[in-house]
């Protein structure tokens, strides 16, 4: 099964992608992982990406598309994959269609995780990270520490990242609406979009997604 996962920041795409990929026995291919792998391995595409990033510039679509194409052609993706963070805009969506068409393949579904905007802001702006270990994550509403501002695991100070501040989150949502959301209409025209609510417990959302996906 070949799936694209879309949704606004804070929709839980990374978490759901990991569970869905495991349940479907297909690799989870995220844009972040693509960049890290290519840069750490020193591939030509990774070198290009790093040059743009060091200059504080956006990595061009053709570099991201090239990385995704290489990854989708690896042996573990022969029976399918779950794309998370790619395509991010219409140009990338059209490129993905072209790549699949060349291989005689097509997408099975585009899974749209739907979350109200106020909930997105609440989820992200409420996050607090431990200064000693960024893997220790708490939330002012959903996962409160035993002592306010103190990490349960190591006693480190909890803080709010600049990227998680409300004004920054709302700017990220504006970018999502203008750049990424149009791909949903693009895929709706192909009859591929499956929209589910991403509210509730992680397991509930995963079950909802599995039931909504077309049968294999």
Automatic annotation (TrEMBL):
Residues 127-163 form the Adenylate kinase active site lid domain. It catalyses: AMP + ATP = 2 ADP. It comes from the Bacteria. One of its GO terms (molecular function) is AMP kinase activity. ATP binds at residues 10-15, 127, 137-138, 200. Residues 30-59 are annotated as: NMP. InterPro entries: Adenyl_kin_sub, Adenylat/UMP-CMP_kin, Adenylat_kinase_CS, Adenylate_kinase_lid-dom, P-loop_NTPase. AMP binds at residues 31, 36, 57-59, 85-88, 92, 161, 172. It is an enzyme of class 2 (transferase). Its EC number is 2.7.4.3. Keywords: ATP-binding, Cytoplasm, Kinase, Nucleotide biosynthesis, Nucleotide-binding, Transferase. Pathway: Purine metabolism; AMP biosynthesis via salvage pathway; AMP from ADP: step 1/1. It is found in: Cytoplasm. Gene3D superfamilies: P-loop containing nucleotide triphosphate hydrolases (3.40.50.300). PROSITE patterns: ADENYLATE_KINASE. PANTHER family: NUCLEOTIDE KINASE. Belongs to the adenylate kinase family. Consists of three domains, a large central CORE domain and two small peripheral domains, NMPbind and LID, which undergo movements during catalysis. The LID domain closes over the site of phosphoryl transfer upon ATP binding. Assembling and dissambling the active center during each catalytic cycle provides an effective means to prevent ATP hydrolysis. Catalyzes the reversible transfer of the terminal phosphate group between ATP and AMP. Plays an important role in cellular energy homeostasis and in adenine nucleotide metabolism. Monomer. This is Adenylate kinase. It comes from Streptomyces orinoci (Streptoverticillium orinoci).
């Amino acid at each position: 099964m070949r799936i694209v996962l879309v949704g606004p920041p804070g929709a839980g795409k990374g978490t759901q992608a990991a569970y869905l990929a495991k349940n479907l026995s297909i690799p989870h291919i995220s844009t972040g992982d693509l960049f890290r792998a290519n840069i750490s391995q020193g591939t030509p595409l990774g070198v290009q990406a790093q040059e743009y990033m060091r200059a504080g510039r956006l990595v061009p679509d053709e570099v991201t598309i090239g990385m995704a194409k290489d990854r989708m052609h690896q042996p573990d993706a022969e029976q399918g994959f779950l794309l998370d963070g790619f395509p991010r805009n219409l140009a990338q969506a059209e490129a993905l269609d072209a790549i699949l068409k060349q291989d005689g393949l097509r997408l099975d579904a585009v899974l749209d995780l739907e979350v109200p905007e106020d909930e997105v802001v609440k989820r992200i702006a409420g996050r607090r990270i431990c200064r000693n270990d960024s893997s220790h994550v708490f939330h002012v509403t959903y996962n409160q520490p035993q002592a306010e501002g103190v990490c349960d695991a190591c006693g480190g100070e909890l803080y709010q990242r600049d990227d998680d501040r409300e004004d920054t989150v709302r700017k990220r949502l504006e970018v999502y609406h203008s750049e990424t959301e149009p791909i949903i209409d693009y895929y709706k025209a192909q009859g591929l979009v499956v929209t589910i609510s991403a509210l509730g417990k992680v397991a509930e959302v995963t079950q909802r997604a599995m039931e909504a996906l077309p049968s294999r």
